[in-house]
Q: What sequence folds into this?
């Protein structure tokens, strides 16, 4: 089908809704650009990762202009995936379907905004969010279901430890930290454990330096340790 009529006019109109205009441009690009036509969801993944990283860079740098631009680039990836999905012969969906499903989910997960629940603290908001999510994901059989191993090792470790805490797995790491702090206090020692996020960063870089000096892969080492925690979680869930 051709988009050269109304879509072209919409894309050129300064008064058009920004999101609708971007979606219109995406449709036209895919219709007329051979590179874009050749792309698949899988082939786009590296670009999605890259654009996400650039958004994070802009946030951490406090770059407002950069953040605006990088959010646009990330939005383009969403529009790109949705446009590819719209042409799937077996299970098509478009950006309107994505936005509609998102809207319904956000309404369900904010019953204190759109229904009669009351949440006066951030903690209560999270309780309501997690309760709604648990209902939506009731078919899941493990707390690890939905955890993406595409995350960097540190982010994955934090996620898996949080999941493990829900069923009492991984608490030995917290206990070891508490014991180390107690020993340090008794001996009047300082600097045994980091006391700020900045010090934690220095400690992590130091551990990576140790890994490099000994020919170890820090990323692989952490992923191996996380897999062991995941195994403990699944074992505990199995009873």
A:
């Amino acid at each position: 089908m051709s988009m050269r009529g109304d879509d072209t006019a919409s894309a050129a109109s300064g008064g058009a809704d920004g999101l609708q205009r971007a979606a219109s441009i995406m449709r036209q690009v895919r219709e007329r650009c051979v590179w874009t036509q050749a792309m698949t969801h899988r082939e786009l993944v590296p670009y999605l990762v890259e654009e996400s990283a650039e958004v994070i860079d802009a946030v951490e740098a406090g770059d407002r202009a950069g953040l605006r631009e990088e959010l646009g680039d990330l939005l383009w990836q969403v529009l790109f995936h949705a446009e590819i999905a719209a042409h799937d012969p077996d299970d098509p969906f478009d950006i309107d379907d994505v936005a509609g499903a998102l809207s319904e989910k956000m309404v369900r997960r904010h019953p204190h905004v759109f229904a009669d629940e009351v949440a006066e603290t951030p903690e209560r908001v999270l309780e309501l969010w997690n309760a709604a999510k648990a209902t939506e994901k009731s078919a899941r059989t493990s707390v690890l279901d939905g955890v993406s191993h595409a995350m960097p090792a540190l982010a994955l470790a934090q996620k898996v430890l949080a999941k493990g805490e829900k069923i009492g797995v991984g608490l030995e790491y917290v206990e070891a930290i508490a014991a180390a702090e107690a020993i340090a206090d008794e001996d009047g020692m300082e600097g045994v454990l980091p006391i700020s996020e900045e010090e934690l960063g220095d400690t992590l870089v130091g551990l990576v330096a140790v890994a490099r000096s000994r020919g170890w892969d820090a990323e692989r080492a952490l992923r191996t340790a996380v897999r062991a925690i995941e195994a403990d979680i699944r074992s505990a869930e199995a009873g």
